[in-house]
Amino acid sequence: MTVFEHDTGYERRTLVLLGVGFGLVGFDRWLMAPLFPHMMAELNLNYSQLGSLIGVLGVAWGLWSIAMGPLSDRIGRKKILVTTMIAFSLLSSLSGLASGFLSLMLLRAVMGVAEGAFTPASLAANSEASRPSRRGLNLGLQLSMMPLMGLGFAPIVATQLLQIVPSWHWVFTISAVPGLIVAALIWRNVHDRSASEPLTAQMPVARPRWTELLASRNVIVATAAILCAMGGIFVIGAMVPTYLVTVLHLDTRSMGLVASAVGFGGFVGSFGVAGISDYIGRRLTALIGFIAAAVLLYFFANTGAHPQLLFALLFGVAMFSIGLLSLLSGPVAIEAAPLGLVASTIGFVSGVGETFGGGVAPVIAGFVAQHFGLARTLDFALYSLIAGAVVTVFLVETAPRRRAATTPAGDSARDTTNASVVVNADPSPQ
To answer: Which of 87, 124, 132, 162 is the most buried (most CB within 10 A)?
Structure first.
């Protein structure tokens, strides 16, 4: 086994840049939700079309996460990161020029392609720069920026900018600037590094087939579980702003405040849930997360127009459910990945979840809202979270600390759960 010195400075720079980059992915993705009540009248849109606009991005994101993960494993991360960040930033800006439903659908679909390609490459790059003992925390911190900026700051920024700029069109136009700046910084500071480089320098390694990732039990279980988690939180993220205005009759500023709880709760949960799983294990953390999210969502759905209480309950729902997304698409997926297929595995787990949980689920929720009432969409999200609790029972524990505590020293050489963890073994407590 080759031993090499870990570059802590590079780890921190990579975490910061990819964290901010992923936050801008979330900001551009969810900017539409708080603006939708203002877009409805001008563009003649309805609730079903809102679900479709949220869903088409999720479907495109999911399919291209699956497709681009293997490409990232072959050509490296940097080119994909920079190209896709420029693309989705410009596409978000162009959304302000849309004249109707069809043009918005096209822009959102292409935006999903770019954001989907960015996801596995960014998570793989962060994982490769991190110590194994900090993998869960670092990936959680990166993923936490998406809910913080997308579901936390986006409703506040959007509703406040509407008080300054002439119309919602201008809010979209301004959104491109931060992404272009971060793309330039990623180009200067992030390098293509592979966790398998020290090993391949010692011996030739055959390139694995993409289908090998399907042999891992945790890949299958994590994919099913993340579908349930996304089916819960993405329906909430898409429908809650309009639910608060039309069902509970909150004013625009109160709606923005309550809706921001999804982002702030998700921010805490993304690094908190994934970080805690480094200590108590991935399986137990996932099970607790699904159960807690479902209970809190039930109380949220049965609470009236009380902004402070709604904020607190929604904060808890998001903290656990978005934390589950970070856990399942981050450390669980990476620790289940065969050597050389890290980005491919991330792309598959998050991509399938995005396609169905983040893409199809909001479309179904839009149909439910249009035909049975907006309040019934929360029931759909609740059932998704309950199903996720059942699925996670079948996860196999892979957290390095937990495995080290339960695996005899003589068996460590036979541990092939994740070849990249073996190569980068870090036995020191951090």
So the answer is: 124
Find the domain containing 259 and state its range.
11-193+210-404
Does pLDDT of 132 surpass 70? yes
304 lies in some domain: yes
Distance CA 327, CA 277 (A): 8
Mean pLDDT of the chain: 80
- Joined tokens for residue 115: 């954001």
- Residue 195: partners with Cβ closer than 8 Å, 6 or more residues away: 127, 128, 342, 420, 423, 424
Show the tokens assigned to 119. Answer: 């996801």
Closest to 265 measured CA to CA, from 336, 320, 339: 320
Instruction: Compute the distance between CA of residue 425 and CA of residue 31 in angstroms, rounded to an integer.
Output: 40
Q: Which two tokens stand for residue 242?
A: 């309009």
Q: How do residues 166-207 score in pLDDT, each as one tens digit?
A: 888 888 888 888 999 999 999 988 887 644 444 334 444 456
Q: Which two tokens stand for residue 218?
A: 């945790």
42 within a domain of the structure (yes/no): yes
Q: How many domains does the chain have?
A: 1
CATH at residue 51: 1.20.1250.20
Tell me: the pLDDT tens digits for 278-303?
888 888 999 999 999 999 999 998 98
**Residues, the chain, total?**
430
Decide if 239 contacts 369 (C-beta within 8 A).
Answer: yes
Q: What angle do CA 345, 331, 260 make, to 5 degrees?
A: 105
Helix (H) or strand (E) holding 307: helix 307-327
Neighbouring C-beta atoms of residue 98, cutoff 10 Å: 18
Alpha-carbon span 365 to 374, nearest angstrom: 8
| Lookup: tokens for 295 | 């209970």
Using the structure block, give the residue that is written with the tokens 């993705």: 29
In a domain, 426, yes or no: no
pLDDT of residue 254: 84
Residue 275 has which token pair?
A: 């970080």
DSSP line for 387-425: HHHHHGGGPPP--HHHHHHHS-GGGGGG--S-HHHHHT-
- What is the distance between the alpha carbons of residues 373 and 313, in angstroms, rounded to a whole number? 22
Q: What is the pLDDT of residues 60-98, one digit of tens each?
A: 887 888 887 777 777 778 889 999 999 989 998 898 888
End-to-end CA distance of the chain: 22
Is residue 417 assigned to a domain?
no
CA angle 237, 243, 245 (to 5 degrees): 120
Residue with tokens 């200590």: 279
Q: What is the pLDDT of residue 5?
A: 66
Token pair of 335, please? 């620790």
**pLDDT computed for residue 85 by the predictor:** 92
Model confidence, pTM: 0.69
